[in-house]
Amino acid sequence: MTTGTLLYEGKAKKIFTAERADEVVHYFKDDATAFNAQKRGTIVDKGIINNKVSERLFTLLEAEGIRTHFVKRLSDREMLTKKVTIVPVEVVVRNIIAGSLAKRLGLKEGDPIQPAIVEFYYKDDALGDPLVNDDHLRLMNIATPALLKDLRDLGHKINAVLKPFFAERQMQLVDFKLEFGVFHNKLVLADEISPDTCRLWDMTTGDSMDKDRFRKDMGKIEEAYQEVQKRVCG
Question: Which keywords does the record carry (predicted)?
Answer without folding.
Answer: ATP-binding, Ligase, Nucleotide-binding, Purine biosynthesis
